[in-house]
Design a protein that fits this description.
The structure holds two protein chains of two kinds. By secondary structure, chain A is of the alpha+beta class. Chain A is built from six helices and five strands. Chain B has helices at 5-15, 47-63, and strands at residues 20-25, 32-38, 69-75. In chain B, strand 2, helix 2 (47-63) and strand 3 form a beta-alpha-beta unit. The longest helix of chain B is centred in the C-terminal third of the chain and has 17 residues, at 47-63. The chains are: A alpha+beta, B alpha+beta. The A-B interface holds A 34, 70-73, 83, 85, 88-89, 120, 124, 127-128, 130-139 and B 34, 42-44, 46-48, 50-52, 55, 59, 62, 65, 67-78.
Chain lengths: 139, 78
C-alpha cells in the first residue's frame, strides 16, 4: 500500500469507528506498557472500541498519523474522529471523568461530575496550577 | 544509543525560549526520559498542543533512536 493509500485508509478507519485505538499489539496481548494502560482504561469503562496493531507497519503509520493528527507516537486514541491523546492523557481524562463524558459512558464513581470539567477557557484561568499528565512518547 | 539529559533540556529550551525545563532519567538507561516543561508559549493551548510543541523540539532525537520514551509534563508558568 502506497503512503497516500495508507493515509486514506487511516482516515477512513478513524471516521468509521467511534472509538479507535492505534496500539502496539492487541488488546489481548499488548506489546507495550503504554498501550496496555489505554486498553485497561477502555476495558474498565466497558466501552466498545476498535483496536489496530501498528507494529506490522509502524513507520508508515507513524508518517500517516503524523500528517493526519500531527502525532507520531503510539498508542493513539481517537474518539468521534478526533485524536484524544496517548496513555497519560487518556488516564488523566479517565480519572477526571472527561473521558466518560466524551465516550458517553457512566461516570467513574470517584471522579468529578461532567459540569466540573474545566473548559479550555477555565484551564487557561487555572493555568498556573494546571499541570498536564505525563505523556509517554515511544519509539 | 543514549542521549545526554542536558542535550534534551537544551533542545526544548531552544525551541521554547523562556521555558523552564527539567529532564530526568526514569530508568537509569538514559533513553526513557521525563521532561517537565513550564513555558509561556503554552498559554491558551490544549494539552495535545502543549505536548506537540515539546515533542517537536526533540523529534529528531526520537527519529535517530537516541530517545526511546519521553514522559512530558507541561504547565504554564505563573
Amino acid at each position: 500500500m502506497s503512503e497516500p493509500e495508507l493515509k486514506t485508509k487511516v482516515e477512513e478507519l478513524v471516521s468509521d469507528h467511534e472509538v479507535l485505538l492505534f496500539m502496539k499489539g492487541t488488546p489481548e496481548q499488548p506489546r507495550c506498557g503504554f498501550s496496555m494502560r489505554v486498553v485497561g482504561v477502555l476495558d474498565s469503562m466497558g466501552v466498545e472500541y476498535a483496536a489496530l496493531d501498528v507494529l506490522p507497519a509502524l513507520e508508515p503509520l507513524r508518517e500517516a498519523t503524523g500528517e493526519i493528527a500531527d502525532w507520531r507516537t503510539f498508542p493513539q486514541l481517537y474518539v468521534k474522529g478526533e485524536l484524544v491523546g496517548g496513555a497519560d492523557i487518556v488516564e488523566e481524562m479517565a480519572e477526571s471523568g472527561e473521558l466518560a463524558v466524551l465516550l458517553g459512558a457512566p461516570q467513574p464513581s470517584d471522579a468529578g461530575s461532567a459540569d466540573e470539567q474545566p473548559s479550555a477557557k477555565q484551564e487557561m484561568q487555572q493555568a498556573d496550577e494546571y499541570q498536564s499528565p505525563p505523556m509517554q512518547i515511544e519509539n | 544509543m543514549a542521549i545526554a539529559l542536558e542535550e534534551v533540556r537544551l533542545l526544548i529550551e531552544a525551541s521554547l525560549p523562556g521555558a523552564t525545563v527539567e529532564v530526568a532519567d526514569q530508568t537509569g538507561t538514559q533513553d526513557h526520559l521525563e521532561a517537565t516543561v513550564a513555558a509561556p508559549q503554552f498559554e491558551g493551548l490544549s494539552r495535545l498542543e502543549q505536548h506537540r510543541l515539546v515533542k517537536r523540539a526533540v523529534q529528531a532525537r526520537f527519529d535517530d533512536g537516541s530517545i526511546h520514551a519521553l514522559s512530558i509534563r507541561t504547565s504554564v508558568p505563573a
